[in-house]
Amino acid sequence: MKDQIKDKMGTTGLIFNEPLLWEKGSPGRTGISLPRRDVEKAPLDEKLVGDGPDFPDLSEPDVIRHFTKLSQWNFGVDSGMYPLGSCTMKYNPKTNERQAAIPGFAGAHPLLPESLSQGALTLMFDLQHFLGEITGLPAVTLQPAAGSHGELTGMLIFAAYHKNKGKPRSKVLIPDTAHGTNPASAALCGFKPVAVQSGPDGVLLPETVADLMDEETAGIMITNPNTLGLFESNIRQVADIVHAKGGLVYGDGANMNAIMGIVDVGDIGVDVLHLNLHKTFSTPHGGGGPGAGPVCVTEELEPFLPVPRVVKDGDRYRLDEDCPLSVGKVHAFHGNFGILVRAYSYILSLGRQLKQVSQYAVLNANYIKESLKGHYHLPYDRPCMHECVFTDKHQQEYHVATLDIAKRLMDHGFHPPTIYFPLVVSGAIMIEPTESESKETLDLFIEALKQIAEEARTCPECLHESPQFPKVRRLDETAAARHPCLQG
Ligand SMILES: *Cc1c(COP(=O)(O)O)cnc(C)c1O
Questions:
Q1: Above 90 in pLDDT, residue 289?
Q2: Band of pLDDT at residue 216, cut at 50, 70 and 90
Q3: What are phi and psi of 312, to 5 degrees?
Q4: What is the DSSP letter of 208?
Q5: To which H or E segment does residue 250 belong?
Q6: How far is it, in rounded angstroms, from Cα 195 to Cα 199?
Q7: Residue 388: enclosing H or E segment and its boundaries?
Q8: Ligand 1 neighbour 146 (Cβ under 6 A)
Q9: Which residue, among 120, 102, 101, has the nearest Cα to 110 in the 3D structure?
């Protein structure tokens, strides 16, 4: 079995070992050559040098090889399929990087006066407009730095809206299929999150919402498509119920990649929505680096958006700070501008084809769902959106769990899917192929998962011992959490 996998997936080859930098080099070696000294030798000032770190003595090639080798241990969407449900690890076209590197954008200083920033302001104004068109919610801020930051901004808007009406409210309804950041964002703004149980089909039932909605409740936060990968088909009725009691509807649009160009979010009753540019609009997820989670709102809520707002006067663009009802600033300057350039480039390069992005994302997820249906337990057997959720229920009788399945996929050259999330599904395996994978890759992935299901029956211990081929085998996760060794 081992060799079969190796032949097929090309997981053989050179994988270099690499010690710590401190274990390399040799005393006196340096990365630079200084000219011969032509003055008297003088001791270093102890006060300036102190007991600084004991840096290793290395040459330039030592350092370059060290970090290049480490980079080859990495796995990214540029190296293979990365079907991490809920995260949308789609391929990011390289043209977006080129546009972001144009010196006029890359070198623009946020303190330049408006008169010297007309290009950057035009881009921001147009991007706001594009996102307004795509969502059907016309007023947009680009400031928030992530999806969850967009949620926080949205909750600040909820609070400001009710306060402005003269009646602050204390609770926010949150379905059990919402993303975990939703209750956290509501709580950070001082709201009490109230859980709403979804119905047997995995979507919200209007009557459940009607029972909970009252005039103490600021509104509801709906992840749509929800974390089961299902479209909230009753959202219009739910929105009517919430609006009738004076509440607002927040849409978690992190997964807009499933419905772009197909659903008008304003039309289905959403008042505030955030987008994840690093998911839907193909900007890098960034390993903790900058992201962007723009927030789109109805015209009625525009006065509450963060300042400064990018506005157009005649044929000039300027920043408007004069918004008395605004929730204030949520990010330094104007947000993560370099990320906005990438999203702008992505939208312009696709134009009307943005709709196809969603169609292919949904088609690919349904192809995987239908192909694996007999092999893995499918808790909600209905058409999915951009991702599908299986469980390990069929494999449990062989003592094989979701974790074993995920680890074995690494031997086949795939990044594992999201596991044990969403929490409403026990032993969840959440697969999001994205639109950027070809049918050949999807077929290889499906074949790998079928083989693993077969192996669960014939050789469960093989799965317990996986992964076999990666540089690092199975880790002791408890020990890693309890006794972190941060030195290597
Ligand atoms: C990813 C995601 C978020 C959080 O976005 P971050 O940018 O990671 O803060 C929120 N909601 C949903 C549905 C998501 O998929």
A1: no
A2: very high
A3: -120, 125
A4: H
A5: strand 248-253
A6: 13
A7: strand 388-391
A8: yes
A9: 120
Does the beta carbon of 84 sit less than 6 angstroms from any atom of ligand 1? no
pTM: 0.90
What is the overall mean pLDDT for the chain?
93
Q: How confident is the model at residue 418 (pLDDT cuts 50, 70, 90)?
A: very high
Domain ranges in the chain are 95-352, 354-473
CA of 17 to the centre of ligand 1 (A): 35
Instruction: Give the pair of three-digit tokens for residue 78.
Output: 């540029």
Q: Does ligand 1 have an atom closer than 6 angstroms to the CB of 254?
A: yes
Q: Phi and psi at residue 472, in whole multiples of 5°?
A: -110, 130
CB distance 386 to ligand 1 below 6 Å = no
Evaluate if residue 441 carries a pLDDT over 50: yes
Contact between 185 and 216 (Cβ < 8 Å): no
123 pocket-lining for ligand 1 (C-beta < 6 Å): no
Indicate the helix (H) or strand (E) that contains 320.
strand 316-320
Amino acid at 86: S
- Residues 77-103: pLDDT tens digits? 998 999 999 999 999 999 999 999 999
- Give me 386's structure tokens: 């951009």
Q: Which amino acid is located at 450 in the chain? A: K
Give CATH for domain 95-352.
Answer: 3.40.640.10
User: How confident is the model over 444-457, as a mean pLDDT?
Assistant: 97
How many angstroms separate the CA atoms of 148 and 257, rounded? 17
pLDDT in tens, 200-210: 999 999 999 99
> Is 354-473 a CATH 3.90.1150.10 domain?
yes
Q: What long-range pairs does 267-270 form, CB within 8 A, spacing at least 24?
A: 267/136, 268/235, 268/236, 268/239, 269/235, 269/236, 269/238, 269/239, 269/240, 269/242, 269/243, 270/137, 270/222, 270/224, 270/235, 270/239
Q: pLDDT digit string (tens) for 136-193?
A: 999 999 999 999 999 999 999 999 999 999 999 999 999 999 999 999 999 999 999 9
Residue bearing the CA closest to ligand 1, atom 4: 147
Residue 133: phi and psi, rounded to 5, are: -65, -40
For 445, what's the count of Cα atoms within 13 Å in the CB-facing half-sphere? 26
- Determine the longest span between alpha carbons in the chain, in angstroms: 87
**Three-state SS annotation for 157-196:** HHHHHHHHCCCCCCEEEEECCCCCHHHHHHHHCCCEEEEE
